[in-house]
Design a protein that fits this description.
This protein has 774 residues and is an alpha/beta fold. Helix content is 30%, strand content 17%. It contains 24 helices and 26 strands. The strands form seven sheets. The chain has a six-stranded mixed β-sheet, sandwiched between helices. It has a five-stranded parallel β-sheet with strand order 4-3-2-1-10. The protein has a five-stranded mixed β-sheet with strand order 18-26-25-20-21. Strand 2, helix 5 and strand 3 form a beta-alpha-beta unit. The longest helix has 17 residues. The chain starts with a helix and ends with a strand. Bound molecules: 1-deoxynojirimycin. 1-deoxynojirimycin binds next to loops.
Length: 774
């Protein structure tokens, strides 16, 4: 209650804040010249007091809901704040920046950051959906638009991409990544980074990217967010770290340390991760920021003695900037409150402090902030309202949807079908704009998102009477940390209302020619702090689906969600299932495009889809047991349940059909370090143009370690006209054939026979072999 009152008061104070200037004059700080950054950084470092240095390492949240500029301006003027996050209003950004570059002693600009995860003003599909497109070029395009929209308001740094491998769909943040597979996730990681940063993050429309959460956050025990991760070195190097390495190789400018403990050592004070791996092994040159209050959490984790010890442990482990929540949070501001003294006492050396500050200043120089610190407010509306952005959002949503089932080719529906004059659109996600967007949509205009109901109505026009019934209501049992950013959801229905609405929906379905049910999750049911103990469809959605299905009407299920859900019943009873994820602002239109065949589905699952939560963790790249046939369900590893997933990794249907043939390797024998080409023909054997993703898997039969039964090592999304055939070419070389070995504690390439498969998912059958010889 107390916090609520404080929050309301703070909001009211916000309204009373002084008027801010509409435009700020651009003036360059005096020390700007065009020589290399090193000398400029040296110059600055030489002038800075310890306090000013510590200030550069201090990043604060700025929540518009209960803060106003006056609360941070004194700190900025005194050089005590180096970066702010969550300011999205260009007027406030410019106002605060003006204080930094005109009123602070050394005129060092602020770095403004924000979670630009899948769009800023224009919301794109959530990252898990992006990965389902298997189209890195598309991902790059989306993130370059997201970058330009954020940059327009003065945001120069995004806390993305999240490249955590996730193999437990109970973990809500699976929605923010690229799924279970290190190869696909690495390709996606690089695409996100290129999209955000371009060739140079200072160039117009670009921002600095931040790979997160370094490292192992996706392995949270039980899928419970923030819980400890225990990851053996082999798994760490072969599965969890590769996407981070790919981001580093793509030039990512910053990294965020994770919240949790990795093998008992908190990631934020983990010298093995932040120093040995990141800097020594990988040569990372950017800077590292903590997750929110994660430095103070070194105390919570029982690692550091107190806040000062936490600051010492984090800085000396390699953590440059501390992100803190506002106010007097007992965990926050460890650097701001302790570092100066630690340096004065000699516990932290001046060199250690300078190394961290240097990395922050370098980033600010590289971003061109010293030369060009302000946003041009006059351009914001034009950039945000560029119709190309919405056009791409629609294409991206179409390309990331996965068709899971289409019995009897019920889809696509036919426009102008004489047998259809009425349609029922049913479910708690059917008429929701908000849930089209997904987690981390915090700066867009929610009203501009297109719901499924709207999309379908626009598509069919007056020819079909489209009616809606919600049928079921869904809600989290416990509140979300994001509730503060949104209008509260309507109050839960009473028992009577529940019965009435349920019946209303069923009778609407009964009186309609076709039924589209839109089920799944609210946006706050996945994402941070959104672990689910089961994968059940929340609320009475399954009951509703069963009741409608019993009517025997043509039925299509559209899923709006951020994780695989338990749809085992639907998978055998509902003829058509389209996984749309949270498809973004153009979601409703894109879904209608797919349902009516104006776009053909071609997305593929970036995760193995379990039959139920009891199968978790389940992923395709597992090792063989002593009885490999178990894995194929000849016998089950469970005595009560199949061990195979509901849908394999890489799975997804099309409105067309494809055939893979003629798999061959250019070199059946190679020496370690050499490469071979793998070629396969893919033919569209159906009657319409469609997309297929050619996927290449390998298996090393024997060697210094047991290797996964299959590993993805290449993919390409193709568009083929009916009857068209193309040859796809992959290269397998050292990078694809080495692995990190526990035996030698390093990367090895074994001489061995390798199986190769090519096909449309992880169960591909077309196979050949090659051999690596000494
Ligand atoms: C906490 C989240 O874990 C992280 O992903 C995010 O970037 C920061 N907060 C900032 O919002």
């Amino acid at each position: 209650m107390k916090t609520k009152i404080a929050l309301c008061l703070a909001v009211v104070m916000g309204f009373l804040s002084l008027p801010v200037p509409a435009r700020v004059n651009v003036s360059k700080p005096s020390h700007v010249n065009n020589s290399g950054f090193d000398r400029r950084v040296d110059d600055l470092l030489a002038q800075m007091t310890i306090e000013e240095k510590v200030g550069q390492l201090n990043q604060l949240f700025y929540f518009k809901q209960f803060m106003q500029p006056e609360m941070v301006e004194p700190g900025i003027r005194e050089g005590k704040i180096g970066s702010l996050l969550f300011v999205t209003d260009p007027v406030i950004i410019n106002r605060l920046q003006k204080v930094a570059v005109e009123k602070s002693r050394l005129k060092i600009p602020l770095l403004f950051g924000f979670d630009v995860i899948h769009g800023f003003h224009t919301i794109f599909p959530v990252p898990l959906a992006m990965a389902s497109s298997w189209d890195p070029a598309l991902v790059e395009q989306m993130q370059s638009i997201a970058a330009s929209e954020a940059r327009a308001v003065g945001i120069r740094w995004t806390f993305a991409p999240m490249v955590d491998i996730a193999r437990d769909p109970r973990w809500g943040r699976i929605v923010e990544g690229a799924g279970e597979d290190p190869f696909l996730a690495s390709r996606m990681a690089a695409a996100h980074v290129r999209g955000f940063q371009g060739a140079d993050p200072s160039s117009p429309g670009r921002v600095l990217a931040c790979m997160k959460h370094f490292a192992g956050y996706g392995a949270a025990t039980g899928g419970r967010d923030y819980d400890s991760a225990f990851i053996a070195d082999t798994e760490l190097y072969n599965v969890y770290l590769p996407p981070f390495k790919a981001a580093v190789d793509a030039g990512v400018g910053s990294a965020m340390s994770a919240y949790m403990t990795l093998n008992d050592v908190p990631a934020t004070g983990n010298a093995f991760l932040l120093r040995d791996v990141l800097r020594t092994e990988w040569g990372f040159k950017g800077f590292v920021v903590s997750d929110a209050d994660a430095v103070g959490d070194l105390v919570t984790h029982g690692f550091a003695e107190d806040k000062a010890d936490a600051a010492y442990r984090a800085l000396t482990a390699g953590l440059d900037m501390e992100m803190s929540l506002p106010g007097q949070s007992p965990k926050g501001h460890a650097y701001a409150t302790s570092l100066t003294k630690l340096v004065q006492e000699g516990r932290v050396s001046k060199e250690q402090l300078d190394a961290a500050v240097r990395r922050i200043l370098e980033a600010k120089f590289k971003l061109g902030l010293f030369d060009n610190p302000y946003a041009d407010e006059s351009l914001v509306a034009t950039i945000h309202n560029n119709p190309e952005h919405r056009r791409l959002a629609r294409i991206a949503a179409q390309r990331s949807m996965v068709l899971l089932r289409n019995e009897g080719n019920i889809l696509p529906l036919v426009k102008g079908d004489a047998k259809v004059s009425s349609m029922a659109v049913i479910g708690p996600l059917a008429d929701s704009k908000r849930d089209m967007r997904g987690s981390w949509s915090l700066a867009d205009d929610m009203q501009s998102a297109v719901s499924v109901l709207e999309g379908i109505r626009t598509k069919v026009g007056a020819a079909v009477k489209v009616e809606y019934a919600q049928g079921a209501d869904i809600a989290r049992a416990y509140p979300s940390i994001f509730d503060v950013f949104n209008k509260p959801r309507p109050a839960p229905w009473s028992e009577t209302q529940k019965r009435e609405e349920f019946d209303k929906a069923v009778s609407l379905a009964r009186s309609s020619d076709v039924v589209v049910m839109v089920l799944g999750e609210h946006e706050e049911m996945s994402g941070e702090n959104a672990t689910q103990s089961t994968l059940d469809l929340p609320g009475r959605q399954l009951e509703l689906l069963k009741a409608v299905s019993e009517l025997g009407k043509p039925l299509v299920l559209v899923l709006i969600n951020g994780r695989p859900l338990d749809i085992s019943w639907a998978a055998t009873h509902v003829p058509a299932i389209l996984e749309a994820w949270h498809p973004g602002a153009e979601g409703g239109n894109a879904i209608a495009d797919i349902l009516y065949g104006d776009a053909t589905p071609g997305g593929k699952l970036p995760v193995t889809w379990p039959r139920s939560a009891g199968q978790i963790p389940i992923y395709y790249a597992h090792n063989n047991t002593k009885e490999p046939e178990f894995a194929k369900d000849f016998k089950s590893r469970y005595f009560d349940f199949p061990s195979s997933p509901l849908y394999p990794f890489g799975y997804g249907l099309s409105y067309s059909t494809f055939k893979f043939s003629n798999l061959r390797v250019s070199k059946p024998e190679l020496k370690p370090g050499e490469s071979t080409e793998v070629l396969v023909d893919v033919e569209n054997t159906g009657r319409r143009t469609g997309d297929e993703v050619a996927q290449l898997y390998i298996h090393q039969r024997y060697g210094g370690a047991s290797r996964p039964v299959r590993e993805l090592k290449g993919f390409e999304r193709l568009t083929l006209a009916a009857g068209e055939k193309k040859t796809v070419r992959f290269t397998l070389g050292k990078a694809e054939l080495i692995y990190w070995s526990a035996a030698s504690k390093g990367w090895v390439q074994d001489p061995a026979v390798f199986d190769v498969w090519a096909g449309s998912d992880a169960t591909a059958v077309l196979t050949t072999t090659f051999r690596v010889v000494k």
